[in-house]
């Protein structure tokens, strides 16, 4: 048998080849095949990313989302080529929150040292700003000085100004809107780029409330243009009032013109049908998803009768190499483009330079934000409340005083998976710079009511002085969610990509893989939006805030406590104290500990999760 390859050996050789040729990041989980639904190509087609939060290296620990930004560059190149060949148009959209939430952005000093050059490699046609680009003044500077010029002519800021540091002059962050024609069909498009009515920005930007922007003369003129299609992109959830207001303003002037909305901020896959000729698409979060929208029946004649049959379709692509092979008909050796490979290498080099795989400790089990009930043994919030906060909320000078430690659930951004907790994981789980403050010696009968008001006091806390209390919770909960749907028993999908991208017909029961858990989206168009068919994940709501009681006497209630809290929630906390009968002001709050909550949590992990993985 010497020299002759057995079938087994041949298979093994092929698999090894694939490993070498696969792009994505070194060490990333291998994608797993799933039954697939195809892309529905239309006259004009869009690829949409949003809320990528620095995850441009992909999800190294999750096989279903382990492609990287370089793979997306390759995907877009192939799909553009197909659009060109077939005389269709393809546009790429990104709706903000590109930064904060992953070591690739947050771990460098200054932040984003590698991110700007990586992100710009994707040829995005319409792009706008999210709130995360604006919390910290240097982030907004970076946006204005780097991302805006990187996407010159593509970047739109309909309701956002920047204040130049030297002159103090207030200028538009970018053009207010743009009118352009598509490459292949010469479609006439008017596009806008909005941010929701965000108030937490640093003082070097100014966000104009949307209800005011739509009264501006430039906007009123723009919506009186007679394009073939309006494209409204925004860091705004599909079911948030800001987009409804824009929709109504446009419709008052244009009863029939189709409008495509691209949404962000709320981190969900969602499509909202505003009317028969307007669809709003939300494309998830953290570069797990790439949204697809296609439109047919766009009329260039402005003849209302012929534009009567506009139709919209949508697809949510998992950020998954096998899915990308499927949608392009390519495989591991033909899929990566030169530019895509270059970008994957830029990311790998940056991850190595930042030492993102450096291990701080080893998580003994999975800890979930919303996949298990809170409180509960596998809840990340119960872990914080019962294990972490009692150990870290300790000020040496006041450690004998009982205290309440209150943090908001939104400060946690991602699950912790069993296994290595790395430098990268740190920024993934909590990228924020918030620290702990306190109010000393608050009567316990006042302090103990605060958590209830923070969590249930929506109406009570709806004061003009503070933002919506829901902003303390996780973004995924800002708009109400449908429960997960079971995958349809009848296969609406038609092919099953193999590990090498070859396509196998469904129907052969031996070839049906066990479904991987993932998105099972239900939106206004139905429950067939996801490209890969998954088994559903549970989703449990979490409160706005959680609280740990620390150093309490065993037998009695304390008279007074130190009320310790994450500085992010201060405006709501002060208001909640008023409602519970405590008259405190901002001046009464003092730093409790040095360091951010994230640093305190990592310190705890280094100490308590020392075991080897
Ligand atoms: C913003 O606040 C900083 C720090 O308080 C201050 O130095 C700066 O002048 C302010 N900038 C503007 C544009 O108001
Ligand atoms: C990919 O497809 C090309 C062209 O169809 C083929 O020659 C090649 O063997 C395939 N590669 C793999 C790894 O399947
Ligand atoms: C923070 O650190 C400074 C300098 O080390 C120290 O003087 C101060 O007391 C610390 N504050 C708290 C609240 O621990």
Overview of the molecule:
- The protein is of the alpha/beta class and 613 residues long.
- It folds into two domains: 9-32 and 43-353, Metallo-dependent phosphatases (Purple Acid Phosphatase, chain A, domain 2), CATH 3.60.21.10; 359-473 and 542-612, 5'-Nucleotidase, C-terminal domain (5'-nucleotidase,  domain 2, Alpha-Beta Complex).
- It contains 16 helices and 25 strands.
- It has a six-stranded mixed β-sheet with strand order 6-7-9-10-12-11, covered by helices on one side. The protein has a five-stranded mixed β-sheet with strand order 3-2-1-13-14, covered by helices on one side. A five-stranded mixed β-sheet has the order 23-16-24-18-25, sandwiched between helices.
- The protein is globular and about 80 Å long.
- Mean pLDDT is 89; it is low at 1-21 and 483-511.
- The chain binds 2-acetamido-2-deoxy-beta-D-glucopyranose (3 copies).
- One 2-acetamido-2-deoxy-beta-D-glucopyranose binds at residues 17-18, 331-334, 500.
Q: How is this fold's topology laid out?
A:
Layout: H1 7-21, E1 44-49, H2 69-86, E2 89-94, H3 103-106, H4 115-119, E3 126-127, H5 137-150, E4 160-163, E5 170-172, E6 177-181, E7 188-195, E8 205-207, H6 210-213, H7 217-222, E9 229-235, H8 241-253, E10 259-263, E11 269-275, E12 278-283, E13 289-296, E14 311-318, H9 321-328, H10 338-353, E15 359-363, H11 380-392, E16 403-408, E17 419-422, H12 423-429, E18 435-443, H13 444-447, H14 450-456, E19 495-497, E20 503-505, E21 517-518, E22 535-536, E23 545-550, E24 560-566, H15 570-579, E25 590-596, H16 597-608
Parallel strand pairs: 1-2, 2-3, 7-9, 9-10, 10-12, 16-24, 21-22
Antiparallel strand pairs: 1-13, 4-5, 4-8, 6-7, 11-12, 13-14, 15-17, 16-23, 18-24, 18-25, 19-20
Helix pairs in contact: 2-9, 2-10, 14-15
One 2-acetamido-2-deoxy-beta-D-glucopyranose binds next to loops.
